């Protein structure tokens, strides 16, 4: 029955054969050439996405980029003009009802009956997706309230909740049937720093139980919690990949060194190392700054500073792995697309 199947997905329950089979299916979302046009306007242009199981996938883009259109297509609320998409190996057009049974969705601005408590709200939502015994429904509700950090406010009316508490309740409402995929639309967009922190903490806790696909324009949040990022602009996918690769700026791993003194001798010593790919040098305020490209991050961590300090004629004032800010990469990619379309 539906109730028995749902019990396989309780947090803390040992893996069952059915669950193990599902976990082996690594790619949860897969789209190929997914396109949506409204007349002459292409809202989404040939979108190719791969979202892997138990990942936190950040879907980024400025307002009007096509993120909401993509979500509607994934949920089967609109049909693509061309291209295909699968979720759990099911076609988003032909099998959208079966897909939605396994998805939890949080809209950007969730609405509640404010006179109801958090427990009543989840109980109401659970009845749409879970037909198990009443005791199991109540157990599930209690588990979810704890998971989203609202156990101590379970029996308070929603009208007294802060913005962050309302968003966490929304995630709980989407999660109460323990879906295989959570789709969250701007889950922390209008929150203060504490509310955003709490929502991100909930997302990280949920990673063990589900896959999270979320839209946002808050780049700092993406850098903190996401495994993989896709950047959309003007309906077009401009970048996709692990956060670490994007933060490397597409140039591989590199270290930044600031120093004074016998730079030429240090250059000869460092450039001979097999794990050094390149050294770029520039002067700045009486010092020299190197960007050292490396092929072996472990060797660089253990040897770079040691080799530099081997020469007493060299003073090293700073050394560390170079990291770009995601905001810089985002702006560069988005502005690049705009320039190309002019």
Summary?
By secondary structure, the protein is α/β, with parallel strands linked by helices. Helices cover 36% and strands 29% of the residues.
Describe the structure.
This protein has 13 helices and 14 strands. The chain has helices spanning 2-7, 17-23, 67-74, 96-100, 118-126, 134-147, 163-175, 193-206, 219-225, 243-247, 263-271, 297-308, 326-340; strands spanning 27-38, 41-52, 56-60, 82-87, 90-91, 103-106, 181-185, 211-216, 228-233, 236-242, 254-261, 276-284, 287-294, 314-321.
Number of helices: 13
H-E string? HHEEEHEEHEHHHEHEHEEHEHEEHEH
Main pleated-sheet profile: 6 strands, mixed
Percent strand: 25-35%
Per the principal axes of the C-alpha atoms, what is the gross shape?
elongated
Low-confidence stretches: 1-25
Q: Reading side by side through the largest sheet, how are the strands ordered?
A: 6-7-8-3-9-10
- Quote the distance from N terminus to C terminus: 57 Å
């Amino acid at each position: 029955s539906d109730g028995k199947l749902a019990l396989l997905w309780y947090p803390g329950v040992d893996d069952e054969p059915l669950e193990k089979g599902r976990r082996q299916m690594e790619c949860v979302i897969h789209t190929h050439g997914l396109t949506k046009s409204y007349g002459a306007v292409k809202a989404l242009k040939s979108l190719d996405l791969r979202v892997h199981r138990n990942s936190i996938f950040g879907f980024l883009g400025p307002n009007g980029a096509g993120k909401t259109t993509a979500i509607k297509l994934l949920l089967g609320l609109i049909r693509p003009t061309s291209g295909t998409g699968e979720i759990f190996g099911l076609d988003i057009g032909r099998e959208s009802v079966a897909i939605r049974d396994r998805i939890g969705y949080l809209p950007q601005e969730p609405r509640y009956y404010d006179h109801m408590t958090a427990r009543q709200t989840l109980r109401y939502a659970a009845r749409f997706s879970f037909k198990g015994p009443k005791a199991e429904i109540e157990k599930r509700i209690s588990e979810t309230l704890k998971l989203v950090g609202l156990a101590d406010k379970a029996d308070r009316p929603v009208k007294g909740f802060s913005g962050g508490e309302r968003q966490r309740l929304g995630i709980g409402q989407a999660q109460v049937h323990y879906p295989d995929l959570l789709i969250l639309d701007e889950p922390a967009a209008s929150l203060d720093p504490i509310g955003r922190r709490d929502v991100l903490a909930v997302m990280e806790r949920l990673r063990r139980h589900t896959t999270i696909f979320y839209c946002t324009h808050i780049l700092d949040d993406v850098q903190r919690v996401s495994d993989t990022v896709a950047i959309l602009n003007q309906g077009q996918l401009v970048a996709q990949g692990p956060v670490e690769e994007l933060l490397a700026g597409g140039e591989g791993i590199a270290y930044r060194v600031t120093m004074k003194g016998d730079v030429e001798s240090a250059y000869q010593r460092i450039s001979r190392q097999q794990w050094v790919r390149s050294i770029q040098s520039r002067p700045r305020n009486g010092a020299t700054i190197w960007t050292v490209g490396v092929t072996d991050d472990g060797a660089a961590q253990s040897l770079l500073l040691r080799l530099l300090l081997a020469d007493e004629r060299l003073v090293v004032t700073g050394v560390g792995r170079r990291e770009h800010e995601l905001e810089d990469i985002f702006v560069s990619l988005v502005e690049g697309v705009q320039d190309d379309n002019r």
